[in-house]
Amino acid sequence: MTKPALIILAAGMGSRYGGLKQLDIVGPGGETIMDYSIYDAIRAGFGEIVFIVKENFLESLKQQVYEKYGNRIKFSFVIQELSLIPKQFNLNPDREKPWGTGHATLLASDVIHGNFAVINADDYYGQLSFKVLAEYLVSMNGKSGEYSMVGFLLGNTLSESGTVSRGICSVNSDGYLTSVEEHHNIGRKGDVIEAENGFGTKVIAKRANLVSMNMWGFTPDIFEKGEELFCKFLEERGNELKSEFYIPFMVNETLKTEKARCKVLNTNDKWFGVTYKEDKEYVVSQFKELAETGIYPVPLFGNE
After folding, report:
1. Considering the entire predicted model, what is its pTM?
2. H or E element: which one contains 131?
3. Which domains does the chain possess?
4. For the chain, what is the radius of gyration of the CA atoms?
5. Torsion of CA 271, 272, 273, 274, to 10 degrees
């Protein structure tokens, strides 16, 4: 059995949070959110972890990885920088914003050759989420155009400290994704959840809307298809200072070509994360409860 790889997107600087939340301690044994994801991924059957990082963050992360996880699983590191774009394009010298999650994923094409998953470093997804995703990826070994996504209820993914961005999904009767649209500035206003769609128009969202929390599964053909889409994106919007190439856009455009389909996987796990500094207290309390109920050992990687 070929085990899938797991890409962890850890290159974001956490502008709303105010620091490198990838290394922020939230667990009772000194753990980061990323530690819990790696623990869950190993148990679920993933065979390799690929970190996408900024160059100035690489050595700090490497030191933490080998100190905490040792030889429990294979690790690789891939740099994401603004300059890493196809040769035929020139970088706008005034741009500072990263190219986005889609660009980060494509950079791993040289180190990943089989089925793989993608997650954010600063989101907690839950044990069942990793299990169902790993099982689906294994079942798709050797196939092409068979993508997957773990779906969460929008109402279970909001922050009490400010607005968030989410990909709101549409699913057909067979459980496959038909579209995903990135929404921004999502937050509660009384009993209503307000959001802005991709055109900047204010809309009302529903608590039961299925959303992508950037927990994706892919067959490796996504790299070739995604590269074509990224080149087209750079041609049209590459000179903009804040445009981003998101995974949901990459998936959405690929689905339109009917060269792939994306299975939406169900989970009962509740997502949580630290978008803002004010979120940290809640996250710490959640991991304390998970440890006290025996879901996780303390310390997480103590004596395994």
Report:
1. 0.90
2. helix 127-139
3. 5-143+212-248+269-292 (3.90.550.10)
4. 18
5. 160
